[in-house]
Fold these 2 entries.
Entry 1:
Amino acid sequence: MTYILSAAKLQTYYRCPLSYYFRYERRVPGAAFFSSAALGTSLHQALAHIYQDWHYNDAIPHLDWVEQCWGQQLNGLTPAQVTQGRAILQRYYTSFIQSESAMRRPVAVEGRIQGTLQVENLEFVLSGRYDRLDYLDEGLELIDYKSSKDSDLTLPDEIDLQIGLYYLALEQRYQRDLKRLSVIYLRSSEKISYEVTNEHRQRVEAMIADLAVQLRYDHKWVPFPGGQCDRCAYARYCPAMQADPEPIPDEAKPEAGLQLVLSL
Ligand code: SF4
């Protein structure tokens, strides 16, 4: 009886249990997501290449190495995106490589993490992805790159949940504590770091325990209206938004009865 849980799922549950139910329990189709992710994907791959394949015989690579890595990630990009991506990586090089006495070899790049947690006789599989994982003297630093033009709408509480989930999963995989989570905004070359405490772990455990009770017994999935409702893809089905909400479409996943829940 396992239940896969990611930071995104936990953050959705925190924002609104009913939207979690629509999205993950019933798989109600949401609004189409339009985004040109090609530039972001190329930037992520170039950065993975820069750190993973550098020979580390010199303290830091020359800018040529960054150019070379970028040159291998241009498939599917427009000329404007090629120029934009190169400029972004040049700024990254100045801010985060050239300014250091040595480029640190990461533990891993573009990795997956997985851990488990037993609550209410459910085994939660905690899963996540990261862009880079570095050793610090006293633990681990997880680094995420953000390439989006849009401002980051993640709330501090939601970041805390992501940190807690990674903490639990990394502890099992590496037997080391996650000490810091850093987000690098590639377009502005800004780095924001969050120091990890035991409270992050306790918070995420409490949130997962709450979710376990919903899945096992309550099935209440209470709507939690707030600022997020403006961009909620499920507002038309939501009793907190509509006096007469539309029925969930037929193509949604059937309602999980108790037996289905028990076989999650
Ligand atoms: S509209 Fe708001 S309250 Fe309703 S499901 Fe979406 S986020 Fe929750």
Note: The two ends are 5 Å apart (CA to CA).
Entry 2:
Amino acid sequence: MLFADLSLVDEFQTELDEIKVNQAKLHARQLVILNQLERAGVSSRSGARTMAEWTATRLDIPAGTAKELVAAANRLGRDPWLFDELAAGRLSLERAMATVRLEATEAPMSVVDKSFELELAAVSRLTHKYRRMNRHDERRVFADRHFVIQPSLDESRWRMWGELPGKDGRIVDQALSERADEMRQLPGGGHFTQGQRQADALVGMAQDSLSRSHGGVDSAGGPEGVVFVDLDLANGSGGELGAEVEYGPRVGPNTLEELLCSGSVQLVGLQDGKPAIASGNTRTIPPAVRRFVAWRDGGCSVAGCHSRYRLQPHHIRHRANGGDHDPENLATLCWFHHHVAVHGAGFRLTDEGPPSCRQLIAPQRYRGPPEG
Ligand SMILES: [Zn+2]
Ligand SMILES: [Zn+2]
């Protein structure tokens, strides 16, 4: 909307300024009254638990706003200069409260004086900077520490959240970030987000901890055992079979393929909910072949990768697609390239070239529609 008459804009601006002044004056009056009513014990007489609760109901405002108002009534009552500025309409209530909070820190008076030239957001940053944590605050933060990890109903995904005291949080953050930085970038310039790499880092750290407590035995992908496959479903799904790890999380075909790579899993096919067939030792890579492949590759097979972290055998042609334990079909991969890049993100390892110098192909390059 365009004003034909520019003097109308000036008029509106002047009116806004007047409203601001009046609002401040009304707030000052409101605070005086709240203070008096609190002293008279109005909240307990009317059945409210606190003065803030009474104020929220009486003024029909959110609980947080009411709490701020009551706090302002208490604090500004003890600061005559700030109160007078508010009552004269020279400061807004928000500015007066921001100043009270800054004064309550150990900020020098010169900083408080200068804060009147700053925006409100900058004043609250200053307040955080000067706020000293006392023993009581510290204990409360320590007592509030917690961590929650919770599976979805079918355990196909887990959520986690929590809160840590400052120094402890920094330790976890630094460890996760350093670990995430070790995660290599993907071929073809692709990369995972920082959040994805930190998630991988967390899993890696947990695995290291487990294998330390289990005598250094690498179980390549977590605790394993028996995997149940519903044959009725599997037969109609063209190999896209989901499976259930015994007493464990429900897994999809990608995880199943990874479990089968490790060769330490027994498959049990279920028909009508009863075991119909069970895989025998053929599922296990013969130890001699396993050792030969590890020796032949001398580390991760991916060209340019020098990682020796949790080296695992991988079936280039997946077991589910009829791939066997022939050394030609096996390649050694580090945890990142095996767990994250291949079975997680869907990269494919080529079977061309020398065994210790293989390429990874990005999923879209072989899954995409043919160009015409
Ligand atoms: Zn694999
Ligand atoms: Zn690697």
Note: The radius of gyration is 33 Å.
